[in-house]
């Protein structure tokens, strides 16, 4: 009934190496994609402010809705197979994966950051006005730093959720953790054990991300952590 | 399919017809996952807030587990892992349906628990004071109030479910995504990836976007009242 | 009265929120150096009135001139008037992500383009004046309400305004912290700055106000020296109001 043979994975150095390399690739893709996605998301959130030209506002809004209402895998395939044909220039699949992850993450982050901006107390904006700060200064110096702290937990859990979907990049032959799993199970036919190991590794990576992001918070927002 | 061919010409009409008929299976899977996951999630929610410690622990463990397992891994485990391990045949629809149900139930019960907990404890105590049992209290006093709070996020999560079904093609479930990929791989002129995937995206979008508008509308309604 | 000498002159000013009229035909002149206390029941429009003076709210009818600058609805550069008008809010509105010192420095750096050193010097000067220089490196939430409000006063003073507006500065405070804020305000009043103060602290009004203005239902219904106002209020609503709060 439970005849697990995990040694079918450990006994091969090739398999273990594939898992380690795959985990590293998954880690880096999500980290870099996450950072780029956050920057893009921030810009998208800012460009939805009332003061911005309506054309830009409208475009940002449409982009966010488009990404949030279509599956990642379709976006990935479009970026990896459609876009290069359209632009008549073939780039590497890693670039495609990174681009797709960035575009995908950015829309979700933008939505969260915008909700944070909307939730800032009106008094803060009035005080900024009374102190002659311009709209831009108010947004960048006063509203945004507070909004980011407020939504930080949501950003983290959204990031983790999105990270757990990045296994799909193995579909465009990125040698990430999921790819490593399929590589091994195609050879030792122990699919169940392999995917159990993979699941545990994904959980461990998610936990690692949470830990790192917690540390980052302490570094990025010292005031939110200050003792009373 | 004649209607499609008249509208888009024979080639595209045929293609869009194929995609739309495959969309049925995306919708079936979404509905199955949503209702199956909803039912399971409901039971879990009751477990989670029940007086019994064992049931609470079980629910907590379950929710934690199925929120941490990537949906993709769940699909692989049920679609490839279990069949090879036990030497049995699991049809893709069953594997995909089960995986998505487990996934949905964990997230749904989290949403509903949040809604239940947002009801002030005074309401529970009032129910207790007039002699209602736990289940009576839950069904007649708390749940109706929590329902209104939970509805926007529940509708919103439906979008997650629909997007989630797109991964099922990986274990050969014959849905919109799989047909999209198949057509894009066909090498036919006019069925290039940059044509097919936007069409696929558009179909997904037309399933999700109305729900997302509806969720926003409900949220606004809840806020205003 | 010489027009040049007027800090604020309001005539025939009215304001609506949609269809609801909050201020009706306000006429008010304030000379430089005058200290005015505005009181009245809640919803009488007193906060709205002083918020119109630095264009946080727009009026729809009549005219407001502050320090020689005419305010009008939809004006493009309200900074002009805000530069000479400082404001202290009921809920302090300190910036929680900046230290006390940074709270005072940032607006100077941005709006007055002062150098970091200069801004710091000015900030410390005013923090000393409100008697909390030792808290300079703390964050607002580490301070008591009274201390926060004093910082808010210092922050407004750093911009070196000619006119200070106070919007119920002690209403959000615990009773034991009211006096420290009032002491700061009294000290400020004695320094000769023009002040408009919405408050129910009648002791403060008696001590420093040149004039007490009583508002009800969006109108100024009484304006008098504090002694006269407190001892023989003319209007029955003012009598009733004083009976409630004294």
Commentary on this structure:
The complex is a heterotrimer of chains A (228), B (225) and C (246). By secondary structure, chain A is mainly alpha-helical. Chain A has a domain of 142 residues: MetI-like fold, CATH 1.10.3720. Chain A contains 10 helices and no strands. Chain B is an all-alpha fold. The N and C termini of chain B lie far apart (46 Å). In chain C, the strands form 2 sheets. Chain C has a 6-stranded mixed β-sheet, with helices on both faces. In chain C, strand 4 and strand 5 form a beta hairpin. In chain C, helix 3 packs parallel to helix 5. Chain C is globular, with a radius of gyration of 18 Å. Chains in contact: A-B, A-C.
Secondary-structure blueprint:
The complex is a heterotrimer of chains A (228), B (225) and C (246).
Chain A: H1 7-10, H2 13-46, H3 54-68, H4 72-87, H5 93-118, H6 122-130, H7 135-163, H8 177-188, H9 191-220, H10 222-225
Chain B: H1 2-49, H2 53-68, H3 71-86, H4 92-117, H5 121-129, H6 134-165, H7 176-184, H8 193-224
Chain C: E1 6-17, E2 20-31, E3 35-39, H1 46-53, E4 61-66, E5 69-71, H2 79-82, E6 85-88, H3 100-111, H4 116-129, H5 145-158, E7 163-167, H6 175-190, E8 194-198, H7 202-208, E9 211-216, E10 219-224, H8 226-231, H9 236-245
Parallel strand pairs in C: 3-8, 3-9, 6-7, 7-8
Antiparallel strand pairs in C: 1-2, 1-4, 4-5, 9-10
């Amino acid at each position: 009934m439970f005849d697990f043979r995990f040694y079918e994975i450990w006994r091969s150095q090739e398999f273990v190496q594939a898992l380690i390399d795959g985990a590293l690739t998954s880690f880096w893709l999500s980290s870099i994609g996450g950072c780029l996605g956050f920057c893009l998301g921030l810009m998208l959130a800012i460009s939805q402010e009332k003061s911005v030209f309506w054309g830009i506002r409208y475009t940002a809004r449409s982009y966010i809705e488009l990404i949030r209402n279509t599956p990642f895998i379709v976006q990935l395939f479009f970026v990896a197979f459609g876009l290069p044909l359209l632009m008549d220039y073939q780039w590497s699949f890693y670039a495609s994966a990174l681009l797709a992850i960035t575009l995908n993450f950015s829309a979700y982050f933008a939505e969260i950051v915008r909700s944070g901006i909307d939730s800032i107390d009106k008094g803060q904006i009035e005080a900024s006005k009374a102190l002659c700060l311009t709209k831009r200064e108010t947004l960048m110096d006063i509203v945004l730093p507070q909004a980011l702290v407020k939504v930080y937990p949501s950003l983290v859990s959204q990031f983790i959720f999105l990270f757990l979907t990045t296994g799909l990049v193995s579909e465009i032959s990125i040698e990430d953790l999921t790819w490593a799993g399929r590589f091994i199970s195609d050879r030792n036919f122990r699919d169940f054990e392999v995917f159990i190991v993979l699941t545990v590794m994904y959980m461990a990576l998610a936990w690692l991300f949470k830990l790192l992001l917690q540390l980052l918070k302490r570094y990025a927002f010292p005031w939110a952590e200050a003792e009373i | 399919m004649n209607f499609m061919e008249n509208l888009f010409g024979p080639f595209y009409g045929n293609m869009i017809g194929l995609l739309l008929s495959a969309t049925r299976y995306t919708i079936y899977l979404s509905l199955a996952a949503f209702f199956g996951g909803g039912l399971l999630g409901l039971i879990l929610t009751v477990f989670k807030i029940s007086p019994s410690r064992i049931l609470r622990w079980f629910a907590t463990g379950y929710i934690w587990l199925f929120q941490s397992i990537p949906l993709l891994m769940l699909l692989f485990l049920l679609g490839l892992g279990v069949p090879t391990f036990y030497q049995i045949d699991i049809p893709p629809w069953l594997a995909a349906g089960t995986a998505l149900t487990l996934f949905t139930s964990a997230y749904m019960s989290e949403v509903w628990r949040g809604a239940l907990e947002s009801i002030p404890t005074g309401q529970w105590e009032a129910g207790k004071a007039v002699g209602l049992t736990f289940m009576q209290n839950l069904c007649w006093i708390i749940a109706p109030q929590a329902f209104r709070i939970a509805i926007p996020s529940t509708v919103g999560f439906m979008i997650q479910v629909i997007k989630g079904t797109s991964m099922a093609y990986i274990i050969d479930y014959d849905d919109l995504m799989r047909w999209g990929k198949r057509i894009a791989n066909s090498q036919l002129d006019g069925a290039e990836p940059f044509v097919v995937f936007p069409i696929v995206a558009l179909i997904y979008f037309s399933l999700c976007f109305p729900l997302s508008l509806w969720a926003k509308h409900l949220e606004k309604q809840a806020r205003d009242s | 009265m010489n027009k040049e000498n007027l800090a604020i002159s309001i005539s025939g000013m009215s304001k609506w929120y949609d269809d609801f009229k909050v201020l009706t035909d306000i006429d008010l002149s304030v000379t430089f150096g005058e200290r005015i206390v505005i009181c009245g029941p809640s919803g009488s429009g007193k906060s709205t009135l002083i918020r119109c003076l630095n264009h946080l709210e727009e009026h729809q009818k009549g005219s407001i001139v502050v320090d020689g600058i005419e305010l009008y609805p939809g004006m493009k550069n309200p900074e002009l008037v805000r530069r000479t008008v400082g404001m202290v809010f009921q809920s302090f509105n300190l910036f929680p992500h900046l230290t006390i010192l940074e709270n005072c420095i940032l607006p100077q750096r941005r709006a007055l383009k002062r150098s970091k050193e200069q801004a710091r010097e000015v900030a410390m000067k005013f923090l000393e004046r409100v008697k909390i220089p030792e808290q300079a490196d703390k964050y607002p939430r580490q301070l008591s309400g009274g201390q926060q409000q004093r910082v808010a006063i210092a922050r407004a003073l750093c911009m070196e305004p000619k006119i200070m507006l106070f919007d119920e500065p002690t209403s959000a405070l615990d009773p034991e912290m009211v006096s420290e804020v009032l002491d700061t305000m009294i000290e400020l009043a004695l320094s000769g700055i023009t002040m408009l103060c919405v408050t129910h602290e009648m002791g403060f009004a008696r001590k420093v106000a040149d004039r007490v203005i009583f508002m009800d239902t969006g109108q100024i219904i009484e304006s008098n020296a504090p002694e006269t106002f407190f001892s023989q209020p003319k209007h029955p609503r003012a009598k009733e109001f004083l009976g409630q709060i004294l």
